[in-house]
């Protein structure tokens, strides 16, 4: 939604001006008057005869024909209605400051609101033939907002409820168009949210509660708007007709019994206290994501989950001071449930982005493609880490371990992309090292995940097995190519076992027994057998030492004989 649209020119500009005091509203109203005067001069509809102004003024004559000639006629009516509304808001601000309800000012405020309603009715008639349906819808929503405010001040609750119901349908549809188109218009989104939060929803809730025919004390405002918009008799049903023509399901009433009131996450059950949240959860549950083929299909789904997280986070902040432990626990479980699904949608979208990267025709483009894949895998790993940090996840052992394994799986896939990049760049040894590292660290068992499934089928045990087979095939291929490359380059040294007729030097033998720089286990090599009888010929003795030992032995024997002669029989030899 551009800032120059009907809602942007009125509510948008007023929001940007930050009007708070009566003086602020007065200055803004005077600025609008100058702009209207400039347009009147440009369109030549200035009434100079102020005495007979009612008879000669040309503004009341603006109709569909003049609008078809020049759209600025519609802008004049739009700004006139806005000026009357700002005048009423100025008086209301003054009454709030004074703290008293002065009858004269109260009547003046209602008169200005009535004038704004009358001008907006003329505006809707003038733009009846507008071809741009979204622009026409904005004009009608603007008129419905004025009618609704007037009905609230007049305490016409049934009329206010039906009018604000139509306004809510129109604003929701305009917001959905911004989301579906992937429009990053922050101004438009902020404007629509501001109108809904500060004007439409409080007024619709008040009108529904004050209506005597309503038996409910509280209800989902979306359900109320779909149920009661048909009661409008002010000619604003065209809002529903336009929305229904563009999206018939948008105005369908949702049966209350089909709206979930509880969610279950990992054996924890939580009650949904916000009716709007329950309805939107019901919408998301009916989304056929199984048929999504493009990553863009998940963008709208991610936005819906993010909107639910934002709504519920607001409820959590509002109830932060409550002492109801059961309600606090339910809020915590529901918040984890919403963030859990939102983050898995993001993971699924990123994985599809990787799969849909364009095929490369040459090495340079392949490396560029792999660089993009690595960047996305980094984001996927970060998102998976966020899943592990969600409240309640750490206490669930099976889920926490499965998320750790999921994070490891994406890390391994990232390493596989790096290995493929090295292989594409003809750096096969580097690629082989990565594949060998993956093979040693990544088990990929049949029961890799302990949980049965992840949301949106992000990963499963069957997918892990398939990926493991692909890794094995790639590693075998790169291993073979690396072997051939190194053999062709003569990079392998000759080992001892390859030449049994050669006795290399000891240093050379140690260097060539095996290549210890290559990863893998050491294995024994063939040895050269030598018979013992051949080796016996090389055994030598120290002969000098042997003769010395012989002499010593003979001398000892002679000495021993002499001693005997000089013994008992020696007396016969002496004398």
From TrEMBL:
Listed InterPro entries: SRP68, SRP68-RBD, SRP68_N_sf
Cellular localization per UniProt: Cytoplasm; Nucleus, Nucleolus
Principal location class: cytoplasm
GO CC, alphabetical: nucleolus; signal recognition particle, endoplasmic reticulum targeting
BP GO terms, sorted: SRP-dependent cotranslational protein targeting to membrane
Region (Disordered) residue spans: 547-567
Pfam families the UniProt entry points to: SRP68
Keywords linked to the UniProt accession: Cytoplasm, Nucleus, Ribonucleoprotein, RNA-binding, Signal recognition particle
Leader sequence residues: none
Highest taxon listed in the record's lineage: Eukaryota
Any one GO molecular function term: 7S RNA binding
Bias-annotated ranges (Basic and acidic residues): 547-565
PANTHER family reported in the protein's UniProt record: SIGNAL RECOGNITION PARTICLE 68 KDA PROTEIN, SIGNAL RECOGNITION PARTICLE SUBUNIT SRP68
Family membership: Belongs to the SRP68 family.
Function of the protein: Component of the signal recognition particle (SRP) complex, a ribonucleoprotein complex that mediates the cotranslational targeting of secretory and membrane proteins to the endoplasmic reticulum (ER). The SRP complex interacts with the signal sequence in nascent secretory and membrane proteins and directs them to the membrane of the ER.
Name assigned to this protein: Signal recognition particle subunit SRP68
Organism, scientific name: Metschnikowia aff. pulcherrima
Lineage, opening ranks: Eukaryota, Fungi, Dikarya, Ascomycota, Saccharomycotina
């Amino acid at each position: 939604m551009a800032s120059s649209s009907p809602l942007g020119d009125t509510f948008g500009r007023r929001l940007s001006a930050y009007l708070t005091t009566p003086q602020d509203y007065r200055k803004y109203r005077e600025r609008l008057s100058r702009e209207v005067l400039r347009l009147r001069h440009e369109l030549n509809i200035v009434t100079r005869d102020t005495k007979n102004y009612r008879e000669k003024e040309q503004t009341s004559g603006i109709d569909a024909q003049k609008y078809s000639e020049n759209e600025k006629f519609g802008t004049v009516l739009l700004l006139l209605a806005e000026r009357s509304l700002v005048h009423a808001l100025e008086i209301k601000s003054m009454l709030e400051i004074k703290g008293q309800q002065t009858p004269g000012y109260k009547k003046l405020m209602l008169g200005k609101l009535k004038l704004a309603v009358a001008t907006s009715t003329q505006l809707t008639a003038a733009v009846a033939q507008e071809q741009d349906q979204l622009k026409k819808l904005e004009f009608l929503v603007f008129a419905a907002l004025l009618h609704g405010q007037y009905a609230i001040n007049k305490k016409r609750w049934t009329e206010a409820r039906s009018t604000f119901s139509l306004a809510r349908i129109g604003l929701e549809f305009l917001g959905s168009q911004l989301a579906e188109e992937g429009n990053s218009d922050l101004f438009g989104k902020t404007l629509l949210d501001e109108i809904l939060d500060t004007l439409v929803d409080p007024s619709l809730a008040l009108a529904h509660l004050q209506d005597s025919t309503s038996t409910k004390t509280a209800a989902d405002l979306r359900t109320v708007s779909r149920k009661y918009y048909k009661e409008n008799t002010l000619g604003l049903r065209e809002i529903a007709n336009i929305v229904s023509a563009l999206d018939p399901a948008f105005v369908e009433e949702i049966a209350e019994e089909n709206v979930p009131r509880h969610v279950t996450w990992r054996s924890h059950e939580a009650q949904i206290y916000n009716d709007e949240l329950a309805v939107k959860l019901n919408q998301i549950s009916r989304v056929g994501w199984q048929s999504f083929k493009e990553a863009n299909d998940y963008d709208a789904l991610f936005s819906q989950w993010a909107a639910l997280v934002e709504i519920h986070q607001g409820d959590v902040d509002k109830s932060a001071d409550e002492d109801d432990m059961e309600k606090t626990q339910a809020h915590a479980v529901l918040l984890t449930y919403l963030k859990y699904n939102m983050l898995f949608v993001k993971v699924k979208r990123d994985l599809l982005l990787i799969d849909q990267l364009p095929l490369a025709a040459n090495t340079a483009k392949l490396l560029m493609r792999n660089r993009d894949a690595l960047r996305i895998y980094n984001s996927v790993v970060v998102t998976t880490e966020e899943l592990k940090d969600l409240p309640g996840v750490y206490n669930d052992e099976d889920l926490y371990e499965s998320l750790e394994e999921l994070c490891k799986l994406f890390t391994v896939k990232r390493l596989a992309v790096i290995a493929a990049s090295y292989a594409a760049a003809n750096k096969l040894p580097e690629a082989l090292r990565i594949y060998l590292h993956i093979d040693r660290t990544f088990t990929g068992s049949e029961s890799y995940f302990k949980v049965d499934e992840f949301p949106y089928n992000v990963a499963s045990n069957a997918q892990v097995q398939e990926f493991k087979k692909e890794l094995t095939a790639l590693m075998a291929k790169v291993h073979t190519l690396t072997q051939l490359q190194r053999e062709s380059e003569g990079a392998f040294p000759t080992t001892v076992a390859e030449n049994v007729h050669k006795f290399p030097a000891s240093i050379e033998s140690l260097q060539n027994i095996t290549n210890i720089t290559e990863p893998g286990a050491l294995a024994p090599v063939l040895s050269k057998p030598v018979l013992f009888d051949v080796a016996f010929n090389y055994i030598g003795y120290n002969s000098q030492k042997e003769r010395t030992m012989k002499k010593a032995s003979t001398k000892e024997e002679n000495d021993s004989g002499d001693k005997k002669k000089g013994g008992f029989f020696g007396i016969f030899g002496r004398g």
